[in-house]
Write a structure and sequence with these properties.
Number of domains of chain A: 1
Structural class of chain B: mainly alpha
CATH superfamily of chain A: Oxidoreductase, molybdopterin-binding domain
Order of helices and strands of chain B: HHHHHHHHH
Largest sheet of chain B: none
Radius of gyration of chain A: 19 Å
Radius of gyration of chain B: 19 Å
Number of strands of chain A: 13
Helix content of chain A: 10-25%
Shape of chain A: globular
Distance between the termini of chain B: 39 Å
Number of strands of chain B: 0
Distance between the termini of chain A: 25 Å
CATH class of chain A: Alpha Beta
Structural class of chain A: alpha+beta
Strand content of chain A: 15-25%
Strand content of chain B: under 5%
Number of helices of chain B: 9
CATH architecture of chain A: Alpha-Beta Complex
Oligomer: heterodimer
Largest interface: A-B, 35 and 21 residues
Number of domains of chain B: 1
Helix content of chain B: over 70%
């Protein structure tokens, strides 16, 4: 119901709005509070940056994209939870400017219960896949949300190539561990490296994406460069960043957040307005750039595509 | 002295002025409402800690005039706490009374925050000279020991709302222990003296 069917010749979000406008548009202008004092703000409207060429051209437009207006590039790239670069939301943008170190190759290992394991350089890994643009909602477990025009390909495409065997019940993902590049890993806030997991059917769901870019450009360090997971019906922390290992396993993986707070963060972590976080409500969310809070949708509004995977499950127990 | 007091009055307003300017010139990041709510709470906490510093500083330096600034600082605790509370009620809950009541009952950190705010009110009401006189110094002092409870509760409120990285609230808790230790020491000494002389 919330899915917009793509039509031939439709434009990508990055083509509709000037990139410089994305960079500089001060989202707070849109809010009710500011409307009243707009006269105070001419400074923030000045100086639109020049429009850099998008890295990815001729992206396939996905039918799974939402037609909601995308969060500004500035907000998406300056308001991040990426504890490998500090626990403050602003610190990843400041600390990850040189990440990943271009002089080091980015290797990704595919292993475990599959017939075609292997270790790939990033470029070799993504070469076979057709990149598309998908505009997804992202709901953070903290109660805020964004709309992000990702660039990527379905995880299912990669899984099919790896040919998992019948023992592959789950897929486990691991982030790079390199405290020199990721200074946040010098502190034991989480049990490094960051680990996340999906059930194999969740991983194969057509919505599940491996992303390499956003707004038509390569991912920046703070957004999980060079390659990250995007699982739009789950809380944001499930969408693990800067992946170096994908492993097919038989038993349920223990994620970094499950270890940090087993009562607060479960394996499934599906967006669910009826199951509160023990410390705060999940009923509503603040869409970044908006003044009023909005109601949170079951499965973040992706129920049509994913609800059938959880039929008969007690979602309070399997939170 | 009154000149210093006037200066202090203005200085204490700086965080509020800065936050207002930052809010209206879009310098608080992608989630300005969250940022300004958090900042006003932090400033209430900071002013409370500064207020609690007055007495040990007096003992340490012998500069008893310092006590003249305590009321002003204490009222600024309330000022920032009111802003913090209004931001929560207005921009987090949009004055939805039933939601707010549910929140206070269900969320321990909100419960504690609400209690802390409420406990400030009798202290503000009894803050003027006339009330001190009416109550009598001893009773007034007893009531205002509530400040210690408020300080402990507000640092617990801060600790509970932080998602994972507890360093910042732990620093405030550590500072609070430093601020309260000389008081406990004095109190223990007085008790010992009293029992020694059978008072």
């Amino acid at each position: 119901m919330l899915i917009k069917k793509a039509r031939l010749g439709e434009l990508a979000a990055s083509e509709i709005t000037d990139y410089g406008v994305y960079l500089n548009r001060r989202q707070f202008l849109n809010t009710a509070a500011i409307a009243a004092t707009a006269s105070l703000l001419p400074l923030s409207l000045a100086s639109a940056a020049s429009n850099p060429e998008p890295t990815y051209k001729d992206l396939v437009k996905s039918a799974y994209s939402t037609d909601e207006s995308a969060t500004t590039f500035e907000s998406i790239t300056t308001y991040n939870n990426f504890y490998e670069f500090g626990t403050d939301k602003g610190s990843p943008a400041l600390m990850a400017t040189e990440f990943p170190d271009k002089s080091k190759p980015w290797r990704i290992t595919i292993e475990g219960e599959c017939d075609k394991p292997g270790e790939y350089d990033y470029d070799d890994l993504i070469r076979p896949f057709t990149l598309e643009e998908r505009i997804y909602r992202l709901r953070c477990v903290e109660g805020w949300s964004m709309v992000i025009p990702w660039v990527g390909f379905p995880l299912a495409d990669l899984i099919k190539r790896a040919q998992p065997n019948s023992r592959a019940k789950f897929v486990e993902f691991t982030t790079l561990y390199d405290p020199e590049q990721m200074p946040g890993q010098n502190r034991n806030v989480l049990d490094w490296p960051y680990v996340e997991g999906l059930r194999i059917d969740e991983a194969m769901n057509p919505l599940t994406l491996l992303s390499v870019g956003l707004y038509g450009k390569e991912l920046l360090g703070q957004n999980g460069a060079p390659i990250r997971l995007v699982v739009p019906w789950k809380y944001g922390f499930k969408s693990i960043k800067s992946i170096v290992r994908i492993r097919f396993v038989e038993s349920l993986p223990q994620s970094a957040w499950m270890k940090a707070g087993p009562n607060e963060y479960g394996f499934y972590s599906n967006v669910n307005p009826d199951v509160d976080h023990p410390r705060w409500s999940q009923g509503r969310e603040r869409r970044i750039g908006e003044f009023l809070k909005r109601k949170t949708e079951m499965f973040n509004g992706y129920g049509e595509e994913v609800a059938q995977m959880y039929t008969g499950m007690d979602l309070r127990k399997y939170f | 002295m009154s000149k210093i007091k006037k200066l202090l009055f203005v200085v204490c307003l700086i965080p509020a002025i800065w936050l207002t300017i930052a809010l209206f010139t879009d310098q608080l990041g992608a989630n300005p409402i969250e940022a300004v709510t958090r900042q006003t709470g932090l400033w209430a906490l900071r002013f409370l800690w500064i207020t609690l510093l007055i007495t040990p500083l007096r003992w340490l330096t012998g500069w008893n005039e310092l006590v003249k600034f305590r009321r002003l600082l204490g009222l600024y605790v309330f000022f920032y706490a009111v802003l913090h509370m209004l931001l929560y009620l207005g921009l987090d809950q949009f004055f939805d009374i039933s939601e707010i009541i549910k929140d206070i009952i269900k969320r321990p950190f909100i419960t504690i925050g609400f209690f802390t705010f409420t406990a400030l009110i009798p202290l503000v009401i009894t803050s003027n000279n006339a009330m001190v006189k009416r109550m009598g110094g001893r009773r007034w002092k007893q009531l205002h020991r509530l400040t210690y409870v408020i300080a402990i509760a507000s640092s617990v409120h801060f600790y509970m709302l932080v998602k994972l990285d507890k360093v910042e609230p732990l620093i405030y808790m550590g500072l609070l222990i430093i601020l309260l230790t000389p008081r406990l020491y004095r109190y223990a000494k007085t008790i010992a003296l009293k029992s020694q002389f059978g008072i």
